[in-house]
Amino acid sequence: MKKTGFVSICAALAAVLVFVAMPIAGAAVPEAVQFMSADGRTLLTGYVFAPPAPGRYPAVVMMHGRAGSYSSLKRGPHNADALTMRHKMWGQFWAERGYVAIHVDSFGPRGYGDGFGKHSYSSRPQEVSEQLVRPMDAYGALSYLRTRADVAADRIGVQGWSNGGMTVLAAMGPRPPGLQNPTPTTGFRAALSIYPGCRVQAAESDYKPYAPLLLAVAENDDEVSPTVCRGLAESLSSRGAPLEFYWYDGAHHSYDDPGKTKQGHEPNRIATQDTLRRAEAFFARYLQP
Questions:
Q1: Full set of structural domains in the chain with CATH
Q2: Dihedrals φ, ψ of 228, to 5°?
Q3: Is the pLDDT of residue 187 over 80?
């Protein structure tokens, strides 16, 4: 494991880090695209954030959490304008740093565009399973990106939050749905999993991501267990996995939601700033030329 201290970020960090990724007024609306999931039957919708200048860029596949792609404050048409503030923030963040980012809507095309409430895990339909289904959506997005002229096909990573972070863990395993014989060449070059549930992978004695993984958790998470993820990180470290693990004292689930409620809590603000910084450095290391 590259980081073994399960990083606890002090409040003083807030004074030197600037929250640079808030949605920018007048930012371009992402391009809505459609592509096939690796399941071979589900036509997915994606939203592409791209740098304005022509070129071939590394890319990031973004996988949403259990609440879905769209803001609960904008019920109605599921479109680019209705994306949550967090998804717009991260998409803009990557585009500004020279990446093509695609946000994948796994739920809408399957009839669950409004997502699911807290603590609904046991009642969700199998057709949106983050272990068996959604990894195929991530690999469908990977295949789609490789067809784009503005994407460097061999430099693509994946990022997920909560249920999407669980999707990332499943997608990066030794036998992921949607990809045979996974390697950083055939699949993703690197992965970010932010406040996921880790129980499934923690129970697998041979689980090891096939490419570098950054795993970030919140101490005061009320939806998933950060201690289970810490145990998984310790196991992966013992297996020699290429892992960075960060533990944020006092932070909540969805700590990087840029809204006033989450960012009004100082540990969330500090965790958000640090995650942005570390995510940028991590993908620069593995995806940039």
A1: 11-287 (3.40.50.1820)
A2: -65, -40
A3: yes
